[in-house]
Amino acid sequence: MNTYAHISQNKWRSGLLILLFPITFAITAAAVIGLIMLLIGGDAQTAMNYCSPYDAQCFQPSRIELLAEMVLRWVPVLWLFAMGWILISYYVGDTLIMHSVGAVKVTPDNQPELYHLVENLAITRGLPTPAIYIIDDSTLNAFATGRDPQHAAIAFTRGIVQHLERVELEGVAAHELAHIENRDIRLMMLTVAGISFFTLVGEICLRIGLWSGRSSSKNGGNARLLLILIGLGFLIYGYIIAPLIRLALSRQREYQADATAALTTRHPQALANALRKISGNCKTESLQHSHSMAAMCIANPLTRMGLFDMLSGMLSTHPPIEERIRRLEEMNG
User: pTM for this one?
Assistant: First the structure.
């Protein structure tokens, strides 16, 4: 697949993602509402106040009918809520991501060599120079984000700038610029912003439900169960359903970016050497709190692997780094 075909695919994939996230989230939320209704719904007549105690002719709906009505009532609201978050992420997601990792912006004054290296590569590809950031971390990693080439950013760890040779750092920068050119950044930013939001809300609800004191009242117990179920629903969505959507939409982006970088620098072996060094020291501390951002990085930055991290890892769209090195060395030959 050539670069133009890849860009075209990523454009319609991004649009599909904008629709799929809210729709699938609304369906998941409806399922959670249904489970809650079945477990703690209580008496149908009391729950919905359909009938007056003095009206013997009043129709009393069944629990299933009440469940269907509640789903129809809340799904549009939840869909609009999720769509609003996706749109916010689309316009300010790159800023939120850079702020979350404590990245500092690079200028021609404070990092002239790095700035001009990226600037020259961007000119070579006919791209605007993206915003450039440094993450204060001694490990070796990098990622790009943004919604389009005109609103893009690249972040490098301090370690990758200090420990790679110039030609190797050029390969890494060209790789990240390829993600910008191919519009991979838009797809991944929407994915990261969406997954991060759902998992954060899920963890908050689950922990509040589990850690809150046991209540002797029925209402207190129902409230804890409600929070636990809502939290589990958000976590299932954020860690399993959303990554499945990501996996279905983007499988070859790293190979494509490697090939584009090799074409840009005319030195595939330099990128292969960089990947070999990165693979041995890429566990970035500032990214440990956000497993969803791992997919944006040139190599997996995570060290802690809990159950949900393992599930996300199995659904990762990053190909094995050894295979990427092999393909680059074949290009070099």
Answer: 0.74
